[in-house]
Design brief:
This protein is of the alpha/beta class. The protein is built from five helices and eight strands.
Length: about 325
């Protein structure tokens, strides 16, 4: 019997362990995402003390799932050419648009330095308007404010007309085509109500771009997909099922290649396959009655049965051929 730890099986063991570990790890990652979604839905961070943007998310970071709605202090330089209008936002029963302008993140006192407007930008929802044609001109120069941080939207609705500045959602893929710099994987909504403190909000904000616009609120966000968290949970289960299947295939393969010959026969029987022979266990070819090696052949029809020494067997059946006969000795030749 071959050992399961034989060197020729080390590659199989390594592959099996790698598949199980990878699938289990991906399952745990999806489970963590599901738990983060549930925690984000159950908490309201909008009344927490604002934090510096750099302490929450970097320009190349993924959005932290537990920071949805977190107030952040942002500062930088407006990028007016990147202004867009997001449709489908309702205020007091009236359909309208969000006005979004990117803010190149950086210190306010460095706004006049060359290249300040080329830094990675955070799209900022400055406010709401019923008609883009009546919206005020985009702001320019340095700005500082508090904004509610939100993940980039991904409702799946496509921008059917790329020739205008109207888009259906605040999606990075739609915004990045209108600016020359990188964008954060998030956006901010100018905050109108934050925790008490010395924060740059309202009249203390610096050029926050809200003049001439109605305040945008988080209630104008599209309804969250309630199946998003459930999908992450189901993905976790799927990965764990794959890990269990990989473990079964690994065990089955090692069992087959290390099985004894009789074990292999049992495996064939389990699969419904036999050797096709009609003989019983231990039968060898030529083991039938009268087929002993070197023995006399079995008598044919009409032939008398023979004794072990080749003599004609005695029988009392008168109807049998040769009945009552006895071996006759050769006559002694007479002397002349």
């Amino acid at each position: 019997m071959s050992s399961p730890l034989a060197p020729r099986l080390w590659g199989v063991h390594a592959l099996g362990v790698a598949a199980i570990v990878a699938a289990s790890g991906l399952g745990m990652w999806q489970l963590d995402s599901w738990q983060a979604q549930r925690a984000a839905e159950a908490s309201d961070l909008t009344r927490l003390d604002p934090e510096p943007l750099a302490d929450v998310i970097g320009a190349d970071d993924r959005f932290p799932g537990d920071k949805v709605g977190q107030p952040v202090v942002v500062s930088g330089v407006w990028v007016p050419d990147g202004t867009v209008y997001v449709s489908g936002r309702e205020l007091d029963g009236q359909d309208g648009y969000w006005v979004v302008t990117p803010l190149a993140i950086g210190p306010v006192d460095a706004a006049d330095e060359p290249g300040a407007g080329d830094a990675p930008a955070l799209p900022i929802v400055r406010g709401w308007t019923a008609d883009p044609a009546e919206a005020p001109a985009p702001p320019e120069g340095a700005a500082e404010m508090v904004a509610w941080l939100q993940p980039a939207e991904g409702t799946g609705e496509a921008d059917t007309d790329r020739s205008d500045d109207i888009i259906p959602q605040v999606r990075t893929a739609d915004l990045i085509q209108r600016v020359d710099q990188d964008l954060y994987g998030a956006y901010g909504v100018v905050a109108t109500d934050v925790a008490p403190g010395d924060w740059p909000t309202g009249d203390t904000a610096v050029n926050d771009g809200t003049e001439g616009l109605s305040a945008a609120t988080l209630e104008q966000l599209p309804a969250a997909d309630r199946f998003t968290g459930l999908r992450n949970f189901l993905y976790a289960l799927e990965w764990w099922i794959f890990a269990a299947f990989a473990a079964f295939v690994w065990w089955r393969y090692v069992r087959e290649v290390t099985a004894e010959p009789e074990d292999e026969a049992e495996l064939l029987d389990e699969d419904g396959h036999g050797d096709g022979s009609g003989g019983g266990p231990g039968d060898e070819p030529g083991d039938g009655p009268g087929d002993e090696p070197g023995g006399d052949p079995a008598p044919g029809p009409g032939e008398p049965a023979r004794a072990g020494g080749g003599e004609v067997a005695d029988t009392d059946d008168a109807s049998a051929p040769g009945a009552g006969t006895r071996p006759v000795a050769d006559p002694v030749p007479s002397k002349p």
